[in-house]
Amino acid sequence: MYGGFWYYLKNAFTQKDNSLYKIMAINILVFLVFLVLKVFLTIGGAEGIYQEIMSKLMMPAALDRLILQPWSIFTYMFLHEGLFHILFNMLFLYWFGLMVQEFLGSRKLANLYILGGLAGGLLYLIMYNFAPYFIEQRDAALMLGASAGVYAIVVGAATLSPDTSFRLLLLGDVKIKYIAIFYVIIAFANSTGSNAGGELAHLGGAALGYFYIILLRKGTDLGVPVQAVGRFFESIIAGRPNVKVSYRKKNPPYKSEPLKDSEVKSSSNSATTQEEIDRILDKIADKGYDSLSKEEKRKLFEYSNK
């Protein structure tokens, strides 16, 4: 029996190939830590210390300030203030992230989130330093939130399988391409509003999500540097080189269709190669998981459990 949502979330850091739950766990833990910190510092009359800590982790638009805190390019995408802020980000991350992780694997999901956050931060910097409307607001502008990475995953999922439907309250079944288009339009319409920096980051993340999938289908993975950095840190933590690439978590949230006896017999003598797995993953990226044959699903499942 496969575990449910809370099982995977609680065990996020003890299981391999589950980037979705690791990203969610980090966001939730950071939110809770800073929530507790804010309450205690505010009660103690030291709210200014909390604001100072947050400002060092949020991403500034002013380049001279960003140079002094370059880590904020990364840390901003794991920070939230306000329950609804993190709630909606995590809901969309989970709904669309499950699809991306099923189609492309855990590492490429992490690629989308990190690259989406970086792309959102880059567009934010460009607009606040070169667009006349934003320049006057640049020095006071600070950004936080997972939205850019989440938008990359939402649009990436919609690009992968645009006709997949989600059942929405009051609306019924809606194709995810329309959900993605709607949220991109909302971000564009609000890009000159009170949360202009965040909306610009949304658009940067959305653009990254689209082009990441398009280029991946052509054989170019923009996330190779992200994976290289990830493997480096994994090897340090594990105390040994990490040379195995795993494309799917050990306990996927779906069940493969049962094979007939004849299929089991014919397949038991053939070893699955990396080349076959790459071909199967390319097929998923191009046509979706449902396009796989029973044999291909079996090979993918067995390879992920090696």
UniProtKB/TrEMBL annotation:
Region annotated Disordered, chain positions: 248-274
SUPFAM superfamilies membership: Rhomboid-like
Keyword Transmembrane listed: yes
UniProt record, GO biological process: proteolysis
Recorded GO MF terms: serine-type endopeptidase activity
Any Pfam family matching the protein: DUF6576
Biased composition (Polar residues): 265-274
Residue stretches making up the DUF6576 domain: 269-306
Annotated membrane topology: Multi-pass membrane protein
UniProt keyword terms in alphabetical order: Hydrolase, Membrane, Protease, Transmembrane, Transmembrane helix
CC annotations in GO: membrane
Subcellular location, principal: membrane
Protein name per the record: Rhomboid family intramembrane serine protease
